[in-house]
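Input C-alpha cells:
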C-alpha cells in the first residue's frame, strides 16, 4: 500500500515517499489502570543501553512488552530503541520521545539521520529517544515475505502510484489481496495487536523504563494520532506534547462508527483537497518565478498550470520510459512534502518530462534498511482506520476525488484500497473520547498548505483535545519539522523546556519562500515568505496570562 506520512529531513534527506514501509505500556503508576480501564501490568524493566552497532554515537536497547496488554502474562514482543543523551547533562530535564510518522515508519533510523535537525535547545536539555513501533522495522515486525527478493518479485507487476485502466486495476487489487493473505499467514496474532492504542500503551511503558515521571513527546504526521491516543489513555502523564502535521483522530477512526465507511481514510480527512491546493500553490509560485529559479515556469501562474495539465494528459496517453502517469503523480505528491530543496527538484523533474528527457532523480545514500517491506503500513492503518470494503466502489471514489482534487485525488483514493481486502482488525482499538483533561496542555502545529495533513485537521485536533493550543506555520509542505521556521523552533523549545505556550492565534512564517533568491531568517516575532490562508494578525509575541502546570513548568494561557 502507498501511504504518505513520515518525517522528512529539513533539506537533508527526502520527504517520506508514498511507498515508504513505515513498546511497553505500563499504566500510569504501579497498580493504576489507564483511562480506558486496561488492567495494570508489571513494572517496566529498566533498559540496558549500549552503543548502536551502525551508529556508535547513539545508544540502542531492546524492550520486551506484552503482545496483548490485557494479557501481560502471555506472548511478549520486542521493541527496538535508540537514544542520544542530552548534550548538557547538568541541565537535563528528561527524555523526549519522537515518533516521526507513518504508520509503518521506524523511528530508530529516522531519528538517527535527523538528529541534527532537532532544535539545539532540545538536544541540550533532553535525551532524544525514538523506537520502531510494534509491527515495524527492527521491532517484532509484520513480515509478509521470506526475503527482500520475494518482496521485490511481488511488487514488480504492481502499478506505480495507482492503477490506470481496468487491466491495471485488476492487477493492483489482486496484488494487495494477496499481500493481506501473505501477512496473515505468517503471524495472524500480531496483526490484531498493532493498533495505535497498542503502541500508546507501549509508549507509556517506555516512559517508565527510562525513569521519567511524565511524558515529553513530539509526534509528526501519523504521530499526531499516536499522541492524541496517548494523551487520552494516560492524561495525567502528559508533561509536554507537540503534535506537528495533524490528523483528527476521530476522523482517523471514522468516529468509531460500526457502519461501513463511505470514504477512504485520506478522502475522509480531506488530504486530496489540500494536496491539490498545495500543488496549485507550487504551480502559481513557480509561474511567478523565472526559469533559473523554477525550471518548469511558463512565465505566469495560469500558463504554468496549463503546462502541467498538458503534461499529465500526455503521460496518461503514453508513459515516458518508467515515468507512467501514476508514477509521476506519486512523485509530484511526495516532492511537495519538503519545500527546500524538493520544490526546486520537482520543477526540474517536470521540465525534464516536458522536454521528453528522463529525469535524474537523486538516490539517497541512506536508503531503506533491508528489513523494510510491503505490509507494515497496511497492517496498522487497515486494522483501525475504516475504509470502504467493497472493491468495485473504488473507481467511483477515484472519480469523486478527481472531480474535487484533480490528479492527486486518484493517488490518494487508491492509497488505502488494500484495506478493502485486509484480513485483520485491531482487537483493542481506541476510538475516543478525545477530550480528557491532560496534566498539561498539548501544543498543535501545522502548515497552512500541507499536502497530506490539512490545516483544517489541526484546527479539529485543537478543538478536540482538552485545552490544546494551535501554532500556525504560514507556509507550505508537510509538517513544520520538515520546513524550516526558527520561529516554530523557538516556540516549541520554550514550550518543552519552560512550559510557555504560544499566545492564542500565534502565527509563524517559513524562513525561506519557495523559489526564493534569499533566505530571510528570524525567530519569534519575525516574519518571512508565505501566502496567508487564514485571517488575523500574525503576531508571535509571548502573551502574559495565568500560570499553572506541574513539574516547574509555566503554561501561559
Amino acid at each position: 500500500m502507498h501511504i504518505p506520512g513520515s518525517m522528512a529531513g529539513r533539506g537533508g534527506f527526502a520527504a517520506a515517499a508514498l511507498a515508504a514501509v513505515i513498546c511497553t505500556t505500563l499504566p500510569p503508576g504501579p497498580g493504576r489502570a489507564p483511562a480506558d480501564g486496561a488492567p495494570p501490568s508489571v513494572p517496566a524493566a529498566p533498559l540496558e543501553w549500549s552503543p548502536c552497532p551502525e551508529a556508535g554515537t547513539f545508544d540502542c536497547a531492546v524492550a520486551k512488552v506484552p503482545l496483548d496488554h490485557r494479557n501481560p502474562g502471555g506472548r511478549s514482543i520486542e521493541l527496538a530503541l535508540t537514544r542520544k543523551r542530552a548534550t548538557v547533562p547538568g541541565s537535563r530535564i528528561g527524555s523526549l520521545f519522537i515518533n516521526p510518522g507513518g504508520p509503518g515508519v521506524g523511528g530508530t533510523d529516522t531519528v538517527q539521520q535527523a538528529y541534527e535537525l532537532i532544535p539545539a535547545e532540545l538536544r541540550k536539555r533532553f535525551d532524544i529517544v525514538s523506537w520502531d513501533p510494534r509491527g515495524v522495522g527492527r521491532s517484532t515486525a509484520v513480515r509478509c515475505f521470506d526475503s527482500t527478493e520475494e518482496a521485490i518479485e511481488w511488487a514488480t507487476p504492481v502499478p506505480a502510484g495507482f492503477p490506470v485502466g481496468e487491466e491495471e486495476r485488476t492487477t493492483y487489487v489482486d496484488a494487495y489481496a494477496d499481500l493481506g493473505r501473505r501477512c496473515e499467514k505468517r503471524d495472524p496474532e500480531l496483526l490484531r495487536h498493532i493498533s495505535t492504542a497498542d503502541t500508546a500503551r507501549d509508549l507509556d511503558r517506555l516512559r517508565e523504563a527510562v525513569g521519567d515521571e511524565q511524558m515529553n513527546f513530539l509526534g509528526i504526521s501519523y504521530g499526531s494520532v499516536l499522541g492524541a491516543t496517548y494523551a487520552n489513555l494516560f492524561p495525567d502523564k502528559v508533561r509536554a506534547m507537540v503534535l506537528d502535521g495533524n490528523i483528527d483522530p476521530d476522523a482517523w477512526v471514522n468516529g468509531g462508527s460500526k457502519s461501513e465507511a463511505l470514504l477512504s481514510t485520506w478522502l475522509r480527512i480531506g488530504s486530496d483537497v489540500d494536496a491539490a491546493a498545495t500543488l496549485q500553490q507550487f504551480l502559481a509560485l513557480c509561474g511567478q518565478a523565472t526559469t533559473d529559479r523554477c525550471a518548469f515556469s511558463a512565465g505566469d501562474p495560469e500558463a504554468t498550470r496549463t503546462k502541467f495539465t498538458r503534461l499529465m494528459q500526455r503521460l496518461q496517453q503514453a508513459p515516458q520510459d518508467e515515468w507512467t502517469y501514476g508514477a509521476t503523480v506519486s512523485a509530484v505528491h511526495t516532492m511537495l512534502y519538503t519545500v527546500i530543496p524538493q520544490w526546486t527538484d520537482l520543477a526540474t523533474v517536470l521540465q525534464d518530462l516536458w522536454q521528453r528527457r528522463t529525469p535524474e532523480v537523486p538516490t539517497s545514500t541512506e536508503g531503506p534498511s533491508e528489513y523494510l517491506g510491503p505490509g507494515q503500513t497496511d497492517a496498522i492503518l487497515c486494522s483501525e482506520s475504516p475504509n470502504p470494503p467493497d472493491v468495485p466502489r473504488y473507481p467511483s471514489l477515484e472519480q469523486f476525488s478527481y472531480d474535487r482534487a484533480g490528479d492527486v485525488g486518484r493517488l490518494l483514493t487508491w492509497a488505502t484500497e488494500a484495506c478493502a481486502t485486509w484480513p485483520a482488525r485491531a482487537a483493542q482499538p481506541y476510538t475516543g473520547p478525545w477530550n480528557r483533561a491532560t496534566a498539561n496542555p498539548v501544543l498543535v502545529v501545522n502548515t497552512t498548505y500541507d499536502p497530506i495533513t490539512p490545516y483544517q485537521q489541526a484546527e479539529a485536533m485543537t478543538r478536540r483535545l482538552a485545552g490544546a493550543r494551535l501554532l500556525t506555520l504560514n507556509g507550505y509542505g508537510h509538517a513544520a519539522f520538515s520546513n524550516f521556521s526558527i520561529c516554530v523552533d523557538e516556540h516549541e523549545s520554550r514550550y518543552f523546556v519552560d512550559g510557555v505556550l504560544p499566545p492564542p492565534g500565534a502565527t509563524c512564517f517559513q524562513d525561506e519562500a519557495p523559489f526564493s533568491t534569499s533566505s530571510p531568517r528570524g525567530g519569534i516575532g519575525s516574519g518571512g515568505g508565505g501566502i496567508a490562508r487564514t485571517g488575523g494578525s500574525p503576531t508571535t509575541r509571548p502573551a502574559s496570562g495565568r500560570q499553572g502546570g506541574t513539574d516547574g513548568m509555566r503554561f501561559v494561557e
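The chain has 18 helices and ten strands. Residues 1-33, 363-371, 519-557 have pLDDT under 50 and may be disordered.
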